[in-house]
Amino acid sequence: MGALAVAIAVAAVAPLAGQTKAAAKPGKAYAQPHTPWGDPDIQGTWSSDEEAGVPFERPAQFAGKQVLAGAELDQVLEQREEQRAQSAPVVGGNTGAGPTHWYENWSRSSPRTSLVIDPADGHVPPPTPEAQQRQAERAQARARTGRGTSDSYEDHSLYDRCITRGLPGVMFPTIYNNNSRIVQGPGYVAITYEMIHETRLVPLDGRPHLTPNIRTLMGDARGHWEGNTLVVDTTNFTDRTNYRGSGETLHLIERFTRGDANVLRYEVTIDDPHTFTRPWTAALNLTAASHLFEYACHEGNYAMSNMLSAARSEEKVAAREGRAARQADTGEER
Known about the structure:
Mean pLDDT: 86
CATH architecture of the domain at 31-49 and 119-289: Beta Barrel
Helix content: 10-25%
Structural class: alpha+beta
Number of strands: 10
Low-confidence stretches: 1-24
Number of helices: 4
């Protein structure tokens, strides 16, 4: 437990040891900084905001193109802005969620055509027959219960309930809170996510994964260095977290590589033969950010109580209308 305590203590210390803030000088190769104990230093606060607006899968019109340039890029960026302006007022549903300028990450101009980089066509491989059957069985089981989507708080996702956004989804940009913070201690790396403020402790000492009988919402992470790249292998997820149909069998291989002082390359490979017909990889170019912002999810989760109370109101209306219809059919007095 001593090493774990050291890792947690290091995670609380600021400024971070060895953190480089100055940009690399033009014309010079980037010199990877190292921690005092010799590991590549990838510490800092990193944001996926620069990738906002990039489709997860590649649109058909950009087949064969990983990046855009020139007039074609200008046209796509203009189209993205138009789409954002149209969607911003309704992001929050019927109540709206504010004008476009509230979403500062929506003005970014990444030239990439998809976050998926493997397969080369930029598309997630199709689900296996096993995964399709599993999904159908879940839908049938749900239908047999007769439950609605808001019969209980348990009918909502863990994300809706402010418990977890889950891996690897928490790494991909959404409308806000797209930052993560990495700190390092001897034998450990800690990764804190701005959205819902979850922290993963990644041991680097070569220990084996936990027994399959022990499972967690964020899985069981084990890390090692391949040159200057941190490789994190995560297994032991639960069936309560569902990433594109993958639950307990989800297996992630994440790679963190510092390209220069202000860029951290993140790649994640999903290797789940029970769900996908082949492994596939998505990537992000994370950029240096100043700090994490507060994400008071539970404190401000009025949506949960509102969704449940709205469902109860709809049930009352349906009950009244049902009684009125029966009375009209039978001639009963109201």
